[in-house]
Specification:
heterodimer, A: about 120 residues, mainly beta, seven-stranded mixed beta sheet, four-stranded antiparallel beta sheet, 11 strands, B: about 120 residues, six-stranded mixed beta sheet, globular
Chain lengths: ~120, ~120
């Protein structure tokens, strides 16, 4: 079956530093990947859609300069949280789709804590 | 405007009973897809069931079935014979394509608790 690997699963960083989160589709090529953010006891909020070889499409209210997304290959998308602040602490989770059907697979998520 | 609405923040059900989790949606895309995911405390998103907008039959996957009422724009999840392990957050999601861009958006979620 389709597997999406997300790393790291947990990261603690100091305020002002940058953190990179990787999302890899292991056994399929993902033309589109989605990045979500989830605060405790809340839903997944779509941050951006990344398409291989082109710029990501950000949702309204998401700062593109703060959340840098790169989808350089059909199997890898990265989210970099730049100049992280405590309010960026959250659960970040990626999703990749293989086709337009039911093929949405999620990574296991990254819990980011900024201290 | 909310695209996906789940009106039940929490549900409490006795083990072995059936439970229905509500979901309504709104879209102008004629070709959309509806999903239900389960999220246990570990945070992983577990795919449960899918319904395409053109599917004539309601989707079923084991103990899960989707009550799809297209005219009402509702896609309720029915879990039969609930088990203690069903306790988790449940999210309804919709895939739509607008202006060539594909999106998968989620409802607010329902926390389901199964009591022994």
């Amino acid at each position: 079956g389709a597997v999406v690997s997300q790393h790291p699963s947990r990261v603690i960083c100091k305020s002002g530093t940058s953190v990179k989160i990787e999302c890899r589709s292991l056994d399929f090529q993902a033309t589109t990947m989605f990045w979500y953010r989830q605060f405790p006891k809340q839903s997944l909020m779509l941050m951006a859609t990344s398409n291989e070889g082109s710029k990501a499409t950000y949702e309204q209210g998401v700062e593109k300069d703060k959340f840098l997304i790169n989808h350089a290959s059909l199997t890898l998308s990265t989210l970099t949280v730049t100049s992280a602040h405590p309010e960026d602490s959250s659960f970040y989770i990626c999703s990749a789709n293989r086709d337009m059907g039911t093929g949405y697979t999620f990574g296991s998520g990254t819990r980011l804590t900024v201290v | 405007a909310q695209k996906i609405t789940q009106t039940q923040p929490g549900m409490f059900v006795q083990e072995k009973e059936a439970v229905t989790l509500d979901c309504t949606y709104d879209t102008s895309d004629p070709s959309y897809g509806l999903f239900w995911y389960k999220q246990p405390s570990s945070g992983e998103m577990i795919f449960l069931i899918y319904q395409g907008s053109y599917d004539q039959q309601n989707a079923t996957e084991g103990r899960y079935s989707l009550n799809f009422q297209k005219a009402r724009k509702s896609a309720n999840l029915v879990i039969s014979a609930s088990q203690l392990g069903d306790s988790a957050m449940y999210f309804c999601a919709m895939r739509e394509t607008l202006q060539g861009a594909q999106k998968l958006v989620f409802g607010q979620g329902t926390r389901l608790t199964i009591n022994p």
